[in-house]
Structures are given as C-alpha cells and as structure tokens.
Amino acid sequence: MLFRITVACCLLLGVTGQVEAQSAQAEMANLREDVRELVQRVGELSLRVEQLERQNGELREKSAATAQAYVTLEQLNSAIAELNQAIKAGDAATAERVAALIKRLGDATNVALDSLAKGLATRPVVQTTFSDNYAKEGVSYTVQKGDTLALIAKKNGARSQDIINANKISDPSRIMVGQTLFIPTPASK
Prior knowledge:
- The relative contact order is 0.06.
- This protein is mostly helical.
- The protein has a two-stranded antiparallel ribbon.
- The chain folds into three domains: 1-68; 71-123; 138-184, LysM domain (Membrane-bound Lytic Murein Transglycosylase D, Chain A, Roll), CATH 3.10.350.10.
- The longest helix is centred in the N-terminal third of the chain and has 66 residues, at 2-67.
- It is 70% helix and 5% strand.
C-alpha cells in the first residue's frame, strides 16, 4: 500500500508538474505576445516621433524664411515718420510751384479774355430772330469751297436775307463747305 501511495504521490506530483509546466508555457506564451505587441507599439511611436521631428524642422525653416519678410512695428513706425517728413518738406515746395503755375495760368486767361472781348466788340451783332417772309418753294444747294451767302444768292437768283431766314443762319460768315442750304426761289413776276 505504501507502494501504491508512493506511486500515487509520484503520479500526482507528475501530473501537477505537467499542469504547472503547461501553465508556465501558457504564461510564457502570453508574455511573448505582450512583448511582441509592445515592440510593435514602440515601432509605431518611433515612426510618429520621426514624422513630428520632420514637420517641426519644416516649420522652423518656414518660420526662418518668413521672419525675414516681416518687419517690426518700430521699423514700420520709423519708416512712416520719415515718409511724413518727406511729404511735409515736399508739400511746401509743391505749393510754391503750384501757386506760380496758377498765377501764370490766370494771367494768360485774363489776356485771352481781354483779346476775346475786344474781338466781340468789333463783330456785328448775331441775328437771333428770323422772318417767315420768304418763298416756301425753292431748291437745295450744297455749299462749295469759296462760296459766300451773297455769291450763292446771286447764282440762284435769290436774296441773301431770304436764305438766312429760311436756314436760320445766325452768322452768315460761318457757312461751311458741304453744308446743304434751302434756297427760296422768288415767285415769277
């Protein structure tokens, strides 16, 4: 019986050892899986760190490049102050030049107006009213180079005043070549 108990104990110890060995193997497999997942996660984190470092470097380069394009507020205020001084200095000189030009222009305008006024004084008064006392029948005539109202009237056997009234010509000296006039023909006697 002791032998049986010994054998039973040995068997029990063997089974327990196998169970413990299997349990240790399962635990070891679990540990290996955990380590593999940790290694994979560390690799992913390493890649992400590399990406962030690369992006950070690019941002530094851009920041350095754009920093040269920006000016400080102090520099901007200084430039504006210098510009204002230049404008004020230029304004005085410009105002003097403009005043001189305006004076010359005013003098020239006064001379031109005086000349015009003298010319108007020697001109005959412009006719602004016209009579309806002319023949309503007549012919069309196109003004030729060298024509005057008196010459046109003579060519057509009409009176100059009738041509003036029919065409409402306020200044007989200003008929133009190519202008079409109505020439009233006097009634036959």
